[in-house]
Amino acid sequence: xxxxxxxxxxxxxxxxxxxxxxxxxxxxxxxxxxxxxxxxxxxxxxxxxxxxxxxxxxxxxxxxxxxxxxxxxxxxxxxxxxxxxxxxxxxxxxxxxxxxxxxxxxxxxxxxxxxxxxxxxxxxxxxxxxxxxxxxxxxxxxxxxxxxxxxxxxxxxxxxxxxxxxxxxxxxxxxxxxxxxxxxxxxxxxxxxxxxxxxxxxxxxxxxxxxxxxxxxxxxxxxxxxxxxxxxxxxxxxxxxxxxxxxxxxxxxxxxxxxxxxxxxxxxxxxxxxxxxxxxxxxxxxxxxxxxxxxxxxxxxxxxxxxxxxxxxxxxxxxxxxxxxxxxxxxxxxxxxxxxxxxxxxxxxxxxxxxxxxxxxxxxxxxxxxxxxxxxxxxxxxxxxxxxxxxxxxxxxxxxxxxxxxxxxxxxxxxxxxxxxxxxxxxxxxxxxxxxxxxxxxxxxxxxxxxxxxxxxxxxxxxxxxxxxxxxxxxxxxxxxxxxxxxxxxxxxxxxxxxxxxxxxxxxxxxxxxxxxxxxxxxxxxxxxxxxxxxxxxxxxxxxxxxxxxxxxxxxxx
Length: 558
Description:
Number of helices: 3
Oligomer: single chain
Largest sheet: 9 strands, antiparallel
Helix content: under 10%
């Protein structure tokens, strides 16, 4: 009985499961996924385009196409979500697409956008008549278009004059959209000039600024540039200019440069240096051993026929003569201050003097004269002689290259306090007996204009000298010091006249120190930093060092 009952139970359960399974099958609705054409959302939606990596991919996108079966896709972008003006970035037969930094940057620039940060760029894929969804990138670009000069036009003319020497002559301004952007980058702008039709092969820099859009040049500065370009003095000539914008990527040392179109202007130059030389000089045992060396020069003045000399004389005799020749010489006349043709010798004790010759009245004067620097910054307020300034005939001023220490100084005449000058307002104007001038330690070109009672202290880095076995036993005594050539104020030229050398070798060095020294490796007149010693044969020589082109300094020997 028990076995029979169990079999009936199993049969009933089987029938129940079978009937239930049939009901479930009749109610099941199987859904097939819809085919799709979908542009995948990017992992990164903010794109920074780095000009230092132009060939790197700017972006890579991919999509799924279960709809079109296409083998030709066009990737489009737009600056608005509606794709009012779609721009084709490229085509592909794959399901992904990449674009380089430089190409994507140019494509965005070509849309005319004026911002550079967080530019909304919508992207989609087109497969014939079927278009995918769009995705959004926020892109930061870099500038491609060059700045545009706005203040000067081709053919503008500039008449320069020494009367307006320190006044503004030209203002160069430019537009550069990136300068007003919110990008945290520095842009250096260089104003460059060149002679016409030289393609700026040797540009002359007129100035530079950072993150600004204008440069102003004075008459003196523009005149300097024009003369350097080859326009003669007191002549009109054409001059080309441009602005070069430079952005540096510090991480890679890559440089992005953009240059404006060239603008051509006309400039009339003027003479910037005086030529006060004359044919007259001073000769004698007190001056030059009666002509063993050239006569001490005399210079023209504001009055025709009146000449002046600033000289150091020794105990002895002297006369005036013309052209370093005895054919026309002047000596003492009947009165104490008279001069007469072929007259007697004048006598003098050693000293520094200003000597004036008046040919209009056949008179002369000789007065003690020296202009120097005194102070705690130089000689402990006169414990040693003042630093003497020399007369510059090319500017009618007194100049000197002096090394000062931290402290105060003044200018005074004849190593005496009877006539001294300070600066009450620290404004470059000299006042008699006024306040001390405060200076910091350094090397300076000191310039004093006694005509207008003005002065400048221009800091410089190097004062050049000659050192060697041929001169001072390689520095056992101070080097023979060069002086700046003030006849060429726009060039960095140094001169050393009439130095006596013995057989041996020598070099040129700065500040009596071996930190910066030059020799000549090829014996070709080109200075080489740390180069070979230069051979000398005993004699008297004059030298010129030309550092106008710092990358190619040269020297000449006479």
